[in-house]
Design brief:
With 153 residues, the chain is an all-alpha fold. The chain is 61% helix and 0% strand. Helix 6 runs antiparallel to helix 8 and helix 7 crosses helix 8.
Length: 153
């Protein structure tokens, strides 16, 4: 019993969200805009064979057929796109926190709503382009792939 009390006290003091939940995930709009600008600048500097649409254009574009196994160059491009969308999702994650912790949805600013939609949409696109839904596990170029081998066995 004493261990539980001591452990629960430590959890409440050690938890980053225990005292200041907004300080843990807060990021100023200027930081978010600058990180997003740098990500878009990186995307625009890609060589012609690796270019792909920005998030706003990608969400409106028709998705390719995700039932076929892609050739290696498409898997590599998809992996690059997945990393882009993962970074986009992480950059906009504070907006999800704000949306989840807002008492009334009508109190969210338009910027917060768009940011939360971008974070969620980018997270979905990350998994979509990574191939996790349609590629055989050994072909995935994804960090969770445990079937990859570094050399012949």
């Amino acid at each position: 019993m004493a261990y539980q009390e001591q452990n629960s006290e430590n959890l409440s003091h050690d938890s980053p969200s225990a005292e200041k939940p907004t300080a843990f995930l807060s990021a100023t709009p200027s930081i978010i805009q600058e990180l997003d600008r740098q990500l878009e600048e990186w995307r625009m500097c890609l060589p012609s064979g690796l270019e792909f649409s920005a998030y706003s254009e990608a969400q409106q574009a028709d998705d390719q057929d995700m039932t076929q196994i892609r050739p290696i160059h498409e898997r590599l491009r998809g992996n690059l796109m997945a990393r882009y969308f993962a970074a986009k999702s992480i950059i906009h994650r504070p907006f999800i926190y704000r949306a989840l912790h807002c008492e009334h949805g009508s109190m969210l600013s338009e910027e917060d709503q768009i940011g939360a939609q971008t974070a969620i949409g980018s997270a979905f696109r990350c998994t979509l382009y990574s191939g996790i839904f349609h590629e055989p596990l050994p072909l995935l170029l994804h960090p969770i792939n445990t079937c990859r081998r570094c050399g012949p066995n």
